[in-house]
C-alpha cells in the first residue's frame, strides 16, 4: 500500500506540463492491494504450498496467479482463475475509502486534464471499489484487464489509456505502486511517479513530500524530501569465510536495498561484483573500502548520482560525492587499523596512557584525523555541508564504556575525534542509553570467551537528521552467555535489532551461515536538513 504523502519519483521527472493523468488502482487509489496479497497467501497455504516459492505477486493478474499455481496443484488454470476472482470480489467489498491525498489530487486534476484508471483488475471489481470510495466520477476512462490482450507489465494497457484520452505518452503522468506496473508505463513512454517503489529497487528514486497539480498552468509540482537509507557493513574478506558468501551478500542487499552501502573488507573486486550483481553503482579506492549505491553515476543527472573522490587514504578509506535530490553529500567508507585492539588491554585493566601509545592505536588516531581534515578541505570548510563518515573503526565509543555498568571507564580517541569536530553518532541519536541498548556489532560469531562483544561500526554524521536506526545481522544458535538488553522480551527497544540469520553458528563452524559476516550491519534512515 502507498499513499500520496510518501511517494518516490523517477529523477528524470521534475516539474512537468501534464496533458493527461493515469492511475493504477490497487494500492495506488485504494487500499486493496493487501486484500490481494492476503488472498493469495491464504490460497497458497491452503494448497499446501509455500508463499516463498512464488515470488512477488504485486501487480499480476488473477490469470497469471492461476498459471503460477496450477502446475503445483490438481486444479486447472481456469478453475484457479475462477476461484481467485470470486474470492477477490468478495474481499473487495470491505474496501470503502480512498488512500490519503488521493481525493485532493483528483479534484485538482478533474476538469483540467483527462484522467484514467489503468489496472490489471476486473471491471466489476474496479468500478465497485471506486464507487464505494467516492472517487469514480473523477475518471474519464477506466481501462481494465478485459479491455486489452496483454496485462501489465506489457505496455498495452497504458498505450490504450493514452489513446482513449487523446493524450501523448510523453506528456502523460502515471501513478504506480508496483514494479510490474511502473515497467509497463515506462515502456509505453509515459512519465512515472512510483509510490513506495524504493523497496523494490526498480528505479533510482528519491522521496517526495508532496505532489501538487496547478490547474492554471497544468503543471505537476513534485517537492523533494531528501530521505535516504545508509548502511555500513564489513563483509569479512568479501564473503569468503562462508560458502557462497558473495551470493549471500547479494541476497541480503536485494532484500533490504538501502540507497547507500559503505563496505569494508572488500578484498579487491568482491564489492564491485556484488554491486554489479544487484544492479547498483560502485566506487572504490584501493583494496578495502567501497561505496555502493542505487543512484546512477550519470554526470548529467544532478539530482541523484555518485562520483568517486581521489584521496591519499587508499589503504583505509574511500570517499565519494553523492547527490541526493540535488544536494551534495560527502560520504566516506572507512576501515581503521585493526591491530593492537584496545578492548583487549582495557578489559585487563591496563593503563590507558600505555594503551593509547600502541603502534596501531596511534595509526587509528592518525587515520581518522586525516579523514576529518580532508572532509573540511573537500567541503571548503562549509559549516553547513552534509557529511557521513561510516565504517569499521576498530575502536569502541567512549560514551558506551562510560554508560555501561559492565565496562570500565575508558576514553577511545578514534571515535571521540569525530564528536570533537562536530559530528554526531547516528545510532546513539536514536538509542542514547548504552545500558538499555548495547548495539554491539562485533563479533557476533566469535566464541564469547575469546572475543569480547562491542560496538565498533559507526555512522558519524554532520548536518543530517537521523529518523531511525537498526542493526541487522546474525543470532547464533550455539548456547553462550550473551544477553544484550535490547533483545530481552521485556525491552521496549527490540526493534533496534533485526535478525537476518537466526540459526548462525560460531567460528569455526560458520561455513553454512546464511549471514556471511563477522560484523553486524548498521543502517540509518537519514534526511538532509537544508
UniProtKB/TrEMBL annotation:
<feature type="domain" description="Endonuclease/exonuclease/phosphatase">
    <location>
        <begin position="231"/>
        <end position="519"/>
    </location>
</feature>
<dbReference type="InterPro" id="IPR036412">
    <property type="entry name" value="HAD-like_sf"/>
</dbReference>
<feature type="region of interest" description="Disordered">
    <location>
        <begin position="480"/>
        <end position="515"/>
    </location>
</feature>
<dbReference type="InterPro" id="IPR023198">
    <property type="entry name" value="PGP-like_dom2"/>
</dbReference>
<dbReference type="InterPro" id="IPR041492">
    <property type="entry name" value="HAD_2"/>
</dbReference>
<dbReference type="Pfam" id="PF13419">
    <property type="entry name" value="HAD_2"/>
</dbReference>
<dbReference type="Pfam" id="PF03372">
    <property type="entry name" value="Exo_endo_phos"/>
</dbReference>
<dbReference type="InterPro" id="IPR005135">
    <property type="entry name" value="Endo/exonuclease/phosphatase"/>
</dbReference>
<protein>
    <submittedName>
        <fullName>HAD-IA family hydrolase</fullName>
    </submittedName>
</protein>
<dbReference type="InterPro" id="IPR051806">
    <property type="entry name" value="HAD-like_SPP"/>
</dbReference>
<dbReference type="InterPro" id="IPR023214">
    <property type="entry name" value="HAD_sf"/>
</dbReference>
<dbReference type="InterPro" id="IPR036691">
    <property type="entry name" value="Endo/exonu/phosph_ase_sf"/>
</dbReference>
<dbReference type="GO" id="GO:0050308">
    <property type="term" value="F:sugar-phosphatase activity"/>
</dbReference>
<dbReference type="InterPro" id="IPR006439">
    <property type="entry name" value="HAD-SF_hydro_IA"/>
</dbReference>
<keyword id="KW-0378">Hydrolase</keyword>
Amino acid at each position: 500500500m502507498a499513499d500520496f504523502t510518501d511517494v518516490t519519483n523517477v529523477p528524470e521527472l521534475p516539474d512537468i506540463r501534464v496533458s493527461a493523468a493515469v492511475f493504477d488502482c490497487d494500492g495506488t487509489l485504494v487500499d486493496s492491494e493487501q486484500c490481494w496479497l492476503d488472498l493469495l497467501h491464504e490460497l497458497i497455504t491452503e494448497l499446501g504450498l509455500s508463499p516463498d516459492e512464488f515470488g512477488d505477486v504485486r501487480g499480476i493478474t488473477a490469470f497469471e496467479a492461476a498459471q503460477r499455481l496450477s502446475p503445483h496443484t490438481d486444479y486447472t488454470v481456469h478453475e484457479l482463475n475462477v476461484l481467485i476472482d470470486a474470492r477477490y470480489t468478495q474481499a473487495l467489498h470491505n474496501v470503502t475509502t480512498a488512500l490519503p491525498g488521493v481525493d485532493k489530487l483528483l479534484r485538482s486534476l478533474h476538469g483540467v486534464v483527462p484522467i484514467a484508471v489503468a489496472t490489471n483488475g476486473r471491471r466489476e471489481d474496479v468500478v465497485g471499489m471506486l464507487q464505494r470510495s467516492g472517487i469514480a466520477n473523477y475518471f474519464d476512462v477506466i481501462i481494465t484487464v478485459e479491455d486489452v490482450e496483454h496485462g501489465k507489465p506489457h505496455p498495452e494497457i497504458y498505450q490504450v489509456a493514452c489513446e482513449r484520452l487523446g493524450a501523448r505518452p510523453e506528456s502523460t503522468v502515471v501513478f504506480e505502486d508496483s514494479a510490474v506496473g511502473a515497467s509497463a508505463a515506462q515502456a509505453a513512454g509515459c512519465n512515472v511517479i512510483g509510490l513506495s517503489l524504493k523497496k523494490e529497487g526498480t528505479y533510482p528514486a528519491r522521496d517526495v513530500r508532496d505532489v501538487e497539480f496547478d490547474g492554471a498552468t497544468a503543471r505537476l509540482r513534485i517537492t523533494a524530501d531528501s530521505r535516504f537509507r545508509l548502511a555500513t557493513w564489513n563483509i569479512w574478506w568479501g564473503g569468503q569465510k562462508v560458502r557462497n558468501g558473495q551470493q549471500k551478500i547479494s541476497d541480503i542487499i536485494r532484500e533490504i536495498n538501502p540507497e547507500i552501502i559503505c563496505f569494508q573488507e572488500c578484498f579487491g573486486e568482491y564489492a564491485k561484483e556484488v554491486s554489479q550483481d544487484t544492479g547498483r553503482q560502485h566506487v572504490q579506492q584501493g583494496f578495502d573500502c567501497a561505496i555502493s549505491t542505487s543512484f546512477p553515476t550519470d554526470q548529467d543527472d544532478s539530482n541523484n548520482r555518485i562520483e568517486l573522490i581521489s584521496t591519499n587514504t587508499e589503504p583505509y578509506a574511500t570517499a565519494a560525492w553523492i547527490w541526493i535530490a540535488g544536494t551534495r553529500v560527502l560520504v566516506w567508507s572507512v576501515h581503521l587499523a585493526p591491530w593492537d585492539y584496545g578492548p583487549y588491554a582495557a578489559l585487563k585493566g591496563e593503563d590507558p596512557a600505555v594503551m593509547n601509545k600502541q603502534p596501531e592505536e596511534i595509526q587509528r588516531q592518525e587515520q581518522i584525523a586525516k579523514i576529518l581534515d580532508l572532509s573540511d578541505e573537500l567541503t571548503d570548510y562549509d559549516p553547513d555541508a552534509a557529511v557521513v563518515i561510516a565504517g569499521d573503526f576498530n575502536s569502541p565509543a567512549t560514551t558506551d564504556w562510560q554508560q555501561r555498568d559492565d565496562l570500565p571507564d575508558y576514553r577511545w580517541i578514534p571515535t571521540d575525534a569525530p564528536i570533537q569536530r562536530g559530528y554526531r553518532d547516528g545510532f546513539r541519536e536514536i538509542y542514547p542509553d548504552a545500558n538499555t541498548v548495547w548495539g554491539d556489532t562485533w563479533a557476533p560469531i566469535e566464541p564469547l570467551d575469546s572475543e569480547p562483544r562491542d560496538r565498533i561500526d559507526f555512522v558519524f554524521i554532520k548536518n543530517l537528521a537521523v529518523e531511525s536506526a537498526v542493526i541487522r545481522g546474525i543470532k547464533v544458535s550455539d548456547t553462550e552467555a550473551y544477553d544484550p538488553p535490547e533483545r530481552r522480551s521485556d525491552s521496549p527497544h527490540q526493534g533496534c535489532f533485526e535478525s537476518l540469520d537466526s540459526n548462525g553458528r560460531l567460528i569455526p563452524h560458520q561455513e553454512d551461515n546464511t549471514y556471511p559476516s563477522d560484523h553486524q550491519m548498521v543502517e540509518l534512515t537519514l534526511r538532509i536538513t537544508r
